[in-house]
Structure formats: C-alpha cells, structure tokens
Sequence to fold (167 residues):
Amino acid sequence: MIPLRRAVAAILVPVLAAMCAAAPAARQDSLSLRQGREALWRSVALDGWGQAHNGEWIKAALFSGAELAIVAGAVGQHRQWKRWAERRDAATDAEVLEFTASRADFYLKDRNKLLWWWLWLKLGCALDAYVSGSLSNFDAGWESAWRVDPARLDDGSPAVRVTWTLP
Fold:
C-alpha cells in the first residue's frame, strides 16, 4: 500500500521545484507567466482544466479522459480487492484461502499501480499546462509557407508539386 506521505511528496515536490525554478522569472510582470501559473494550478485541481484555460481543447479532452479512465479503473480494482478480501477472511479451506488471498493481492497491487499512473499523469498534465501557458504569447518571429502548384512529370503526365518554405 502506498503511504500517503509518499504519494503527496510524489506530486508536490516536482511541482514546487518547477515553481521555485520559475520564481525569479515570475517576478517579471508578464501576462504569459501569470497564464502559466494559473494553468498549472487548474491542472493540479483537475486534469485538462489548465489545457482548456490555455485554449488547447484536444489536449484537455485527452488528459481529462485519461484521468477518468485511470480513476475508474482504480475504483473498480478497489471494489474487487474488497470483495476478494472479504472472501479471504471468510475462507476456512486452505486451498480456498490461498486462492482468495492471491486474488486479493493481485487487485490490491493493480489498484496501487493505477494510482501511481494517476499521479504521473497529474504531474505531466500540470507541467504541460504550465509550459503551454507560459509560452502562450511567445512569438518565434518567423512563418512558414505552403504552396501547391500543378506540374507535369517528364513523361508529360499531370502531377502536383508541394513546396514548403521555411525561413
């Protein structure tokens, strides 16, 4: 079973470290840094909310869906673990006891694995929201151009020429 202190530390330590690393830059009065911090805290509260705040709706849907799937799986595994633990406690035969104990152990480990996946998803979502929000008004200063032209091959058959111009 995962101790609560380790689980909280697994989430908060990297998030706080990222915020402390950005603290000197955060003293600047910049809209993008404020946007990044707001998006980070929204994603910590609910996966995908920070991405939605940044206007990245597809990412928001993916992160929210992944969180819902992992949490639903963990809840299902917890229910199965409780069911097999009750059967284990009520077992009198040695073979039944061994079988129910192995099943209960499987569901407990699987639930804990899903909770660890959820913590890593939460961390990745928060960091993605922070970086995307901080870079929201970043201008690279260049634009690429696409051009599609009709063309002819050497044998005279029609073709399409696609040109992509980078600065």
Summary: Residues 25-29 have pLDDT under 50 and may be disordered. The first strand starts at residue 145 and ends at 152.
